[in-house]
Write a structure and sequence with these properties.
10 strands; about 40% helix; five-stranded parallel β-sheet; about 325 residues; alpha/beta; single chain; 13 helices; Rossmann fold; 2 domains
């Protein structure tokens, strides 16, 4: 229950998320959504937390519903290698000073690209100056290096953008319910023995769908607990990587596929001897942190439950959650003119 750790700015950021969800404006990107609808293709770029969950959760949602838009995501440097002539390009960067996306937008502007959009945490940034239209997050500055509340608002922004661009079901009427579910996930009591087991793990693996949740929580594991972590997409955890796993490791599985639980037990629990933990809306055969079923909005609730767990592990390890020793708020800052 992370409410007991509010001396940390990171935890206060996390606890602010339910109100950020409730207050979110689902219509302010309407003009841009109309332009993206006309283009029909959207490239979502950014670095680290500004890309993983916002972009991948949007892509997963769109593909499940068969929304009439082509979506792709790539980090800034690799995106510079693509022909984006017929694509709208949206860049997310909290600082607005991330070198990779600034380089991409500078190149697009020089070639006369007409559909460049940005979302930053501050107004009047270098990135916004290169965009044809820029937006600013409403969640405010974060109190820790690890991004949390901004990640949720970024993902909601993309979700609302897609709804407006494709005529999908509006998420707005569901935000109050989602906020309550996120609040409950942040307050779930975590078994102290489970926290101890994870804190003692050599490596913390995260498994789950390629929708950004497990991958983003892998990054947060590094930033919050300072422990080695790896993301194992889908059921990759039982397709060879077990050869280098150890009995002291832990696999945390997000929204597990029911038909794969027996195989995880056979390969990982029995074969390797490690511990499997699940974050799920249903009971499972493993130790489970159970959250409410939020249907297509479930990734937001799962993310909150993952934060809750990581905070408890970080506190158990005696980590200063706000101040990593090496990680910076701006991973690669643009220093040009």
């Amino acid at each position: 229950m992370i409410e007991t750790h509010t001396k940390f700015g990171l935890v206060r950021d996390m606890l602010a998320v339910p109100e950020i969800i409730r207050a979110f404006d689902c219509d302010r990107m309407a003009e841009t959504a109309a332009e993206i609808r006309d283009v029909g293709r959207l490239m979502m770029t950014g670095e680290g937390s500004s890309r993983i969950f916002p972009a991948k959760s949007a892509i997963t949602h769109a593909r499940r519903l068969g929304l009439p838009i082509e979506l792709h995501t790539e980090a800034g440097l690799q995106a510079q290698e693509y022909d984006l002539t017929d694509w709208a390009v949206f860049a997310l960067s909290n600082s607005g000073r991330t070198a990779e996306v600034i380089g991409l937008f500078d190149r697009l502007k020089q070639t006369g690209h007409q559909h460049r959009y940005s979302l930053t945490a501050f107004p009047d940034t270098r990135l916004e100056s290169l965009a044809t239209r820029g937006y600013v997050l409403e969640c405010g500055e974060e109190g820790a290096v690890a991004a949390t509340k901004s990640v949720v608002e970024q993902a909601l922004f993309y979700r609302a953008l897609l709804d407006l661009a494709t005529g999908g079901d509006a998420v707005g009427p569901r935000l109050a319910g989602l906020a309550d579910q996120v609040d409950e996930a942040l307050a779930v009591e975590i078994d102290p023995e489970l926290v101890k087991r994870i804190a003692e793990a050599g490596t913390i693996y995260w498994a789950g769908r390629n929708n950004g949740v497990a991958e983003e929580l892998t990054l947060k594991t590094n930033e919050i607990t300072r422990k080695p972590a790896d993301y194992l997409e889908g059921t990759y955890a039982v397709h060879g990587v077990e050869e280098v796993m150890n009995g002291g490791d832990v696999v945390i599985w997000i929204d597990p596929y029911p038909g794969s639980e027996d195989k995880f037990a056979e390969v990982l629990e029995q074969g390797v001897g490690l511990t499997v933990v699940e974050i799920s809306s249903r009971p499972t055969r493993f130790s489970t942190i159970q959250v409410e079923d939020a249907a297509d909005l479930a990734p937001f609730v799962q993310m909150a439950a993952g934060w809750n767990l990581l905070v408890e592990v970080g506190v158990a390890l005696g980590v200063n959650l706000d101040k990593p020793e090496r990680a910076r708020k701006v991973g690669n800052e643009f220093t040009g003119g």
